[in-house]
Amino acid sequence: MAEDARSADGEVDLGPADDPDADDVDSASAALFVSRIVTQAVGFFALVYYARVLGPAGLGVFFTFQTLVSVLGIASEFGVSGAVTKRMSQAVTERQRGAFLTGAFVLMLAPFGVVSLGVVLFGHRLSQFVGLDAVVPLLVFVLAVNASAQMLISALRGERQISVTAWVSLAGQFVRVVVSVGFLLAGFGAVALVYGIAASSLTRSASAFGLLNTTPAVPRFETIRSLFDFSKYTAGMEVSDLAYNWADTLVLAVFASKSVVGVYETAWKLSFVTLLAAQVIGVALAPSVTNWHESGQMEKVAEAFRHGVTYSLLFVVPSIVGVAVLGEEILSALYGFTTGATILLVLVVGQLAQAVKNVSQNVLFGVNRPEAVFWTNVVTVGANVVLNLALVPRFGGIGAAAATLATATVAALAQLYTLRSTIPLSVDAGAIAWQVVLAGVVGGVLLLVRPHVPGVTTPWVFALVALAVAVYGTGLLAHGGMRERLLDALPVSKLPVSLS
């Protein structure tokens, strides 16, 4: 601030937030985009190594533990991290920000205590379910450091340090891989990956705390109530994400072998790479949409939604075709799996709906419609659990994938139906059509080239994927509007999506 403006109670008034125009969103998104590309790449190669060392059964043990962390983490945090981002971005004084930050940790103490007590009481059963000894101390510790990291990173987002959170997450990913590989080399087996999660969360928590500009302050009752009022709805969103991301794995862990869990989760994580653009756009849009809405600039919100949805599909559309042609080769060459190609294809198709949902959900929060997100998510959570219980015992991994696809589709449609009463909904039909055409061209090229490949080896699979990327990327640059946005973005570190 150039000069301090004192409020009546002596607090430093932060003044009205700068108008987060399209350039702000693009700049923040670019940092996220680059860091997440690196993060996904590091995670991708690490998973290849883990699969070859542990096999599908060993991976299944780790993925079951990771699922428990995600499920219990949502219960112990109760949506407070999402509320922190919202309330801190709305704060007009330094003290308000500090009070919201401290209040968030206070609010989280009760649910975290209840969850930790439950872990201790049911520790023996949890150990049997996961397939690891000493699950109780590991689970409680990972839950604690992960909750702290999530809260502090959310606070950074509330300060609009979006690009900073990108590098914090990237640092955590590097630490996770280094620690996991180190313990694997030392012969620790699947628990090595658990140690990696703990080290990553510690790194992210410490880094985020050191980078925060907010000084903790004593919260008032109204502060905690404000956080709680919003966290009720963000908890609903997180439960929906839980149902979409982890309900299938939980049911598989009950009804299927750890090998099936390992194959399914590996396919899921591979399909999740296609959501990179949608994740980046959704995270970057939320704070900006809040300010546009509060200043009455709804035309900017509508335009942001239009381009956000259009470009959230950038990687998903060609990936569907690529997996349809090369799914078996990818899983075999990279991970050594002989099954899972159909599961992978169904999951990638499901990411179409999830990409749209990532954008619509963040826009709904930005225009202060958390109740809409909550109720649409409540409906889809129930549907997903029922579908998984009905399909997994009979169809295994394919049934879980089908349930996930159906859930994402219902959730996206429900949120779009709700959002249309707030802003006019539209997409760049020409850009999406061009993506579809290019995906078809990529599929044709792969079908022509694949018969001439000497064998299913890792180098050849990478070569085919590189060819597909080159064809698709060249085609994107051949489209006038998309080329302009992509090339304009790169030199100034912006997202290849213009929201202006």
Q: What's a quick, concise take on this entry?
A:
By secondary structure, the protein is an all-alpha fold. The chain is 80% helix and 1% strand.
Map the helices and strands.
Elements: E1 5-6, E2 12-13, H1 22-77, H2 80-90, H3 94-121, H4 123-130, H5 135-158, H6 162-185, H7 191-211, H8 221-245, H9 247-255, H10 258-272, H11 276-294, H12 298-312, H13 316-335, H14 341-366, H15 370-395, H16 397-419, H17 429-449, H18 458-478, H19 480-489
Antiparallel strand pairs: 1-2
Helix pairs in contact: 1-3, 1-5, 1-6, 1-8, 1-10, 1-11, 2-3, 2-5, 2-8, 3-5, 3-8, 5-6, 5-7, 6-7, 8-15, 9-15, 9-16, 10-14, 11-12, 11-14, 12-14, 13-14, 13-17, 13-18, 14-16, 15-16, 17-18
Features:
single chain, 500 residues, mainly alpha, 2 domains, two-stranded antiparallel sheet, 19 helices, 2 strands, 80% helix, globular, disordered N terminus, disordered C terminus, Poly_Biosynth_Transport, Oligosaccharide flippase family protein
Please report the number of helical segments: 19
How would you sum up the major sheet? 2 strands, antiparallel
Average pLDDT rating: 82
Task: Kindly state the number of beta strands.
Answer: 2
The residue ranges in which pLDDT falls below 50 over 5 or more consecutive positions are: 1-23, 489-500
Could you tell me the radius of gyration in angstroms?
Answer: 22 Å
Side by side, the strands of the main sheet go 1-2
Please trace the helix and strand order, writing H or E for each element.
EEHHHHHHHHHHHHHHHHHHH
User: Which structural class fits the helix and strand makeup?
Assistant: mainly alpha
